[in-house]
């Protein structure tokens, strides 16, 4: 009967609309549920509608659609925590632990970026100053400094490089054997100098002179090609290791090749001229390589690239092929003359033993390095660096200062710390001997004379004078 019973609707004096009683969860509801007040029914209707709760796991956080601002704030906080996690763990991720290996294409692009951003011959002199100042951060001459020192000094000296370029260059010279964040500054500066070799003052002037001479020789009719006799005879000319490497590789490539006319330069010139359809005198690297191998000249691609970059470059990807042919003719003529020991050219091109030693010294710049080290030692008092003690001199001096302050009896820091003259001399002598500071007696006596007051020595001023 209770299933077929009609639902009772009633009205309240304060509410003219009929209200249904709330439906209970079970079917066996008591009769009292039909007689609830009208106010209970109104409260039930006014309750907000709640979505179905979906169980969540750890990987997918629960969604809260009722408060979108709170949801996005939680997402932002999670992203910030993930980004700050390496900083909370004290991990410096600016540089890798091992050096980065680059392809040839990446090496060329990085060198071009460095050359463009540093630019100008002034950067060569600033690199020398950079090396001198970085050496001051390396008192033990390990060759490694922290990357923050390199960043600050490059900015101070006016070597304005993009942060990404400098960071990418430093990634090449880190070491897994060193502390994280330390860079081999000697190799880094040497790499910068290599990138700037094409715009250094001496080489830039030499390239202009060579281009002018070659332009005149090309314009003059029936000019006989002769080697530059004074090329190595001039002692004032700066040693060029890149040019020497090119000549050595060229000689090695043509060592087992017949030099008595097998290389047909007329055919080489004819083929290059056919490839140059516009008669502009310039070709790209691939076109020149294809013609060289077509004429069967046994040259490595790396050697061809070095010759083109060194002597024939017109634009970043175009080279003067006539200068390339002329350079090969000059070098092969020189090689044939050098192989003949009876030729007077042999004595001019083959240096003596003393000249070889001078060239080695110029190549490795050992004198410049030793001069910088000697200057650094003289500025920091060589007696301190010659000590056999494993701890640094200033660290040992701080231990002397701490030991002196243990004899202070007055706890008032505002008052000066003074000791009787003889007691101060006895303590300084003892700690000087214990910590192997090698401060001579004359220096101690001179400091005591300047810091004495009424038969007492002001220890604060004495320590400041001895630390200089």
Written description of the protein model:
The protein has 468 residues and is mainly alpha-helical. Among the domains are: 1-58, no CATH class; 104-199, Recoverin, domain 1 (Orthogonal Bundle); 382-466, no CATH class. The chain has helices at residues 38-46, 68-83, 85-88, 104-118, 122-136, 147-156, 163-170, 185-195, 201-219, 241-253, 265-275, 285-294, 301-311, 321-339, 344-349, 353-364, 366-379, 382-385, 393-405, 421-434, 441-450, 459-466, and strands at 144-146, 182-184, 282-283, 313-315, 318-320, 418-420, 452-453, 456-458. The strands form 3 sheets. It has a 3-stranded antiparallel sheet with strand order 3-5-4. Strands 6-8-7 form a 3-stranded antiparallel sheet. Strands 1-2 form a two-stranded antiparallel ribbon. The longest helix is centred in the middle third of the chain and has 19 residues, at 201-219. The chain is elongated and about 100 Å long. It starts with 37 loop residues before the first helix and ends with a helix.
Q: Quick gist of this model?
A:
With 468 residues, the chain is mainly α.
């Amino acid at each position: 009967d209770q299933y077929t019973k009609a639902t009772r609707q009633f009205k309240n004096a304060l509410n003219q609309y009929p209200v249904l009683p709330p439906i209970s969860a079970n079917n066996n509801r008591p009769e009292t549920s039909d007689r609830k007040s009208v106010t209970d029914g109104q409260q039930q209707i006014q309750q907000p509608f709640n979505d179905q709760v979906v169980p969540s796991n750890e990987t997918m956080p629960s969604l809260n659609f009722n408060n979108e601002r709170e949801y996005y704030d939680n997402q932002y906080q999670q992203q910030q925590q993930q980004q700050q996690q390496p900083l909370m763990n004290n991990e410096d991720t600016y540089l890798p632990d091992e050096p980065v290996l680059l392809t040839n294409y990446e090496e060329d692009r990085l060198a071009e970026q460095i050359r463009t951003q540093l630019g100008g011959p002034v950067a060569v002199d600033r690199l020398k100053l950079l090396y001198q100042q970085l050496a001051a951060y390396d008192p033990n001459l390990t060759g490694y400094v922290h990357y923050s020192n390199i960043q600050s000094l490059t900015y101070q000296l006016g070597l304005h490089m993009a942060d990404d370029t400098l960071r990418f260059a430093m990634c090449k010279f880190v070491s897994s054997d060193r502390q994280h964040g330390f860079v081999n500054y000697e190799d880094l500066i040497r790499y910068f100098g290599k990138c700037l070799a094409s715009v250094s003052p001496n080489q830039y002037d030499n390239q202009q002179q060579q281009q002018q001479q070659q332009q005149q020789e090309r314009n003059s009719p029936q000019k006989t090609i002769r080697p530059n006799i004074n090329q190595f005879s001039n002692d004032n000319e700066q040693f060029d290791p890149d040019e020497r490497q090119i000549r050595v590789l060229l000689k090695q490539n043509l060592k087992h090749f017949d030099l008595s006319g097998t290389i047909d330069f007329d055919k080489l010139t004819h083929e290059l001229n056919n490839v140059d359809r516009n008669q502009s005198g310039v070709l790209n690297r691939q076109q020149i390589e294809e013609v060289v191998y077509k004429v069967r000249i046994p040259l490595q691609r790396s050697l061809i690239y070095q010759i083109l970059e060194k002597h024939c470059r017109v634009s970043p990807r175009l080279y003067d092929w006539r200068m390339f042919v002329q350079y090969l003719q000059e070098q092969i003529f020189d090689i044939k003359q050098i192989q003949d020991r009876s030729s007077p050219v042999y004595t001019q091109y083959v240096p003596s033993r003393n000249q070889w030693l001078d060239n080695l010294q110029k190549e490795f710049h050992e004198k410049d390095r030793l001069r910088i080290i000697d200057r650094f030692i003289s500025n920091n008092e060589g007696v301190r660096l010659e000590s056999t003690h494993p701890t640094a001199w200033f660290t040992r001096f701080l231990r002397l200062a701490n030991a002196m302050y243990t004899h202070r009896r007055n706890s008032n820091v505002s008052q000066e710390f003074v000791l009787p003259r003889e007691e101060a001399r006895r303590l300084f002598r003892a700690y000087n001997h214990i910590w192997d500071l090698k401060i001579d007696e004359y220096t101690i006596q001179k400091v005591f004379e300047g810091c004495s007051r009424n038969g007492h020595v002001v220890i604060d001023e004495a320590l400041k004078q001895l630390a200089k």
